[in-house]
Write a structure and sequence with these properties.
4-stranded mixed sheet, alpha/beta, 2 domains, 3-stranded parallel sheet
């Protein structure tokens, strides 16, 4: 089963500001995403995209089959990778109504969606998401012989550092979604316990982004 399914074509503009986007030459049009998902955020950036709108809504309700899971993971991956580049992403999110009210916080490091639906209290949750969002909120980096995750989604800094090679291999495997059974169970359980992985149907998806633009000096982050 392929997990590199690209989302449908996106709309893109050369500027963040809606008024500036109305000027001639600022609209890049409807852009297809025919390549591997891993490279699409870079391609959009090189084309000059600074504001990107995804079609439809990212739907996390219920048990997703393989096809819907792949599409959902692809859309989330694009939102994550564009957020890492500080691109303004316009997207909509539907959470499972059965999830607890704070389920949105797992994704709170991403560019806040335009609309949020699902559990009770979504309007207030979306306002909190917008108020609390900033770049570098949940990221991972690779050093010589180790990987480190720095996570501020819950208000305080949480750090997770691993020097075992299987952790890095698992992150790379899960970056754009992979069947949960295809990675070491013990490593996956560690990531799940820290809410660093999101289960979407049969797929497990890596939540943090690898930063492309630092908000301030990396040592401060």
């Amino acid at each position: 089963m392929s997990t590199t399914l690209s989302p449908p074509a996106v709309l893109a503009w050369r500027d963040y500001d809606p008024d500036a986007c109305e000027l001639p030459g600022m609209f890049l049009g409807e852009l297809a995403l025919p390549g591997t998902l891993e490279g699409e955020s870079e391609r959009l950036w090189q084309l000059g995209a600074r504001r990107v709108r995804l079609p439809g809504a990212v739907d996390l309700r219920g048990d997703a089959g393989p096809g819907r899971a792949a599409g959902t993971v692809a859309a989330l991956s694009l939102v994550r990778d564009l957020t890492a580049r500080a691109v303004l992403v316009e997207w909509d999110l539907v959470l499972d109504p059965a999830e607890p009210a704070g389920a949105w916080q797992v994704l709170s490091h991403l560019q806040p969606p335009r609309t949020l639906a699902g559990p009770d209290g979504c309007d207030e949750a979306l306002r909190a998401w917008r108020r609390g969002h900033y770049l570098c909120k949940c990221l991972w980096r690779k050093g010589p012989g180790f990987v480190q995750i720095r996570d501020r989604r819950w208000g305080e800094l949480r750090r997770f550092t691993a020097d075992e090679p299987e952790y890095e291999r698992t992150i790379e495997r899960l970056a754009y979604g992979a069947p949960a059974a295809s990675v070491p169970a013990a490593v996956l359980d560690d990531f799940r316990s820290e809410k660093l992985v999101l289960d979407v149907g049969p797929l497990a998806w890596w939540v943090p982004y690898r930063i492309s633009r630092w908000l301030q000096e990396s040592m401060t982050i």
